[in-house]
């Protein structure tokens, strides 16, 4: 059984990498100074999150006609019911609560060159669902309701750099999906803008190089989900040299070839697009919004302080009261989705023709907009499959759970979106497998990292979980 390395081991690893690469970068802030700054921001701010009954929500209520949990403004988001029908053989039809948030928010990272080295402006931000309070967020992380100040709060800092009239150079700008299991058709604008302006530095923000961020991605619950999805979209050409200290390690060479268009790929891009389009064409995913009350027909229970499933699986819906000194609004209440357990995201990789390939699957989730998206080889909450017949358990789940540590290339715990989910976390793994391991069926395909990156400018091709893995994998060459 693989054991998570833990925060202390990850910190030691990050320090080792810092020593190995210090001469390659001219950073505005050293790693030691960063940790001092981050700890100081934690001490300087006050955070408190308490579970409360639904009746104590302020501005939120259950609609008398539908039972949906909605905000009085008609904005932000709502908790509704969703009826889903698919043609998969196991549990092909079900109902569940779902977050409905039609607004498209902004997830933006402002970048600037200091002495020729690209730096990202990152924010120490508290979200109510975070396990550990503060995490590193993008420069701007805001829903439309937030930055339009529907809540009556303060302005969103640095938003002006992501406006159409900004003088900055746009390096990436695209709509990306979010968790299809819990959101209905949710997308956010992921944008990276480079500026040459002198940017006034707020006390809750800092400049970090991409190399430093890669090292921080080794730490549990440090870089939040919204940062990871944007970081995955930064063009590889801008990320700087990687892996030069790793020498002639075969895995590193294969990994770097996989990031570039010089590597030899098993399938060309046309084949990958045709494969996914064909799967989307024959996969059935029928979604029908229903009242929240109607999900009780499939075992959901609507209580005074929790909405949960009678089997003790999947997730709960809870209510919280929040106090945070470094947010646009200092105190508020809201509902959150609380997963029953940590998820598992494992990407199996192998070297083919000297180029590292990843085994991705085309997966359909309840709330997906375009039927199926590419995700990790294993993508699940293992406990949900404890009593499922062996033939319907996720492919390679048991393989991943028993993989020898010698084959594990990455093992880290990352939090998911703390603004909507309560203590949601996934264990992210990269495991190098035997050369003879092949696709189990036609929903899986071996692809290079460059091919995955080339799909990012298009919406709804890669799940947010796969994008998190791709961002985290950037540190692999540095670690070896």
Automatic annotation (TrEMBL):
InterPro entries (alphabetical): EvaA-like, EvaA-like_sf
Gene Ontology molecular function terms on file: lyase activity
Domain dTDP-4-dehydro-6-deoxy-alpha-D-glucopyranose 2,3-dehydratase: 32-234, 271-472
Taxonomy, superkingdom: Bacteria
Name listed for the protein in its UniProt record: Oxidase EvaA
Native source organism of the sequence: Micromonospora rifamycinica
Lineage: Bacteria, Bacillati, Actinomycetota, Actinomycetes, Micromonosporales
């Amino acid at each position: 059984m693989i054991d998570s390395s833990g925060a202390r081991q990850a910190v030691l690893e990050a320090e080792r990498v810092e020593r190995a690469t210090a001469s390659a970068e001219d950073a505005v802030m050293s790693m030691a100074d960063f940790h001092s700054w981050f700890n100081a921001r934690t001490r300087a701010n006050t955070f408190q999150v308490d579970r409360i009954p639904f009746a104590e929500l302020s501005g939120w209520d259950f609609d008398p006609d539908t039972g949906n949990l909605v905000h009085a403004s008609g904005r932000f988001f709502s908790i509704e019911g969703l009826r889903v029908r698919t043609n998969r053989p196991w549990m092909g039809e079900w109902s569940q609560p779902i977050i409905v948030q039609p607004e498209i928010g902004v997830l933006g990272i402002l970048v600037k060159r200091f002495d020729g080295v690209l730096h990202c402006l990152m924010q120490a931000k508290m979200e109510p669902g975070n396990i550990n309070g503060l995490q590193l967020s993008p420069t701007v992380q805001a829903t439309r309701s937030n930055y339009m100040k529907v809540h009556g709060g303060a302005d969103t800092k640095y938003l002006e750099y992501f406006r159409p009239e900004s003088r900055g150079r746009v390096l990436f700008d695209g709509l990306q999906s979010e968790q299809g299991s819990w959101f209905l058709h949710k997308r956010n604008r992921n944008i990276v803008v480079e500026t040459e302006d002198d940017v006034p530095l707020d006390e809750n923000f800092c400049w970090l190089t991409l190399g430093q961020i890669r090292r921080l991605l080794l730490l549990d619950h440090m870089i939040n989900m919204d940062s990871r999805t944007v970081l995955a979209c930064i063009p590889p050409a801008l990320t700087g040299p990687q892996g030069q200290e790793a020498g002639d390690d075969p895995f590193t060479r294969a990994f770097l070839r996989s990031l570039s268009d010089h590597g030899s790929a098993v399938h060309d891009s046309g084949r990958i697009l045709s494969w996914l389009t064909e799967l989307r064409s024959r996969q059935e995913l029928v979604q029908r919004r229903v009242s929240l009350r109607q999900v009780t027909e499939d075992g959901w229970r609507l209580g005074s302080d929790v909405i949960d499933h009678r089997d003790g699986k999947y997730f709960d819906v809870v209510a919280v009261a929040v106090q945070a000194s470094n947010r646009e609004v200092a105190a508020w209440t809201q509902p959150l989705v609380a997963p029953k357990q940590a998820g598992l995201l494992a990407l199996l990789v192998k070297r083919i023709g000297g180029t590292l390939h990843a085994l991705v699957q085309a997966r359909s989730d309840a709330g997906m907009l375009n039927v199926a998206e590419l995700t990790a080889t294993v993508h699940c909450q293992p406990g949900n499959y404890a009593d499922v017949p062996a033939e319907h358990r996720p492919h390679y789940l048991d393989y991943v759970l028993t993989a020898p540590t010698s084959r594990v290339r990455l093992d880290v715990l990352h939090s998911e979106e703390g603004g909507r989910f309560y203590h949601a976390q996934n264990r992210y793994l990269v495991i190098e497998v035997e050369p003879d391991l092949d696709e189990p069926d036609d929903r899986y395909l071996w692809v290079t990292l460059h091919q995955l990156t080339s799909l990012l400018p298009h919406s709804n091709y890669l799940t947010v979980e796969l994008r998190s893995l791709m961002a985290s994998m950037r540190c692999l060459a540095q670690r070896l």
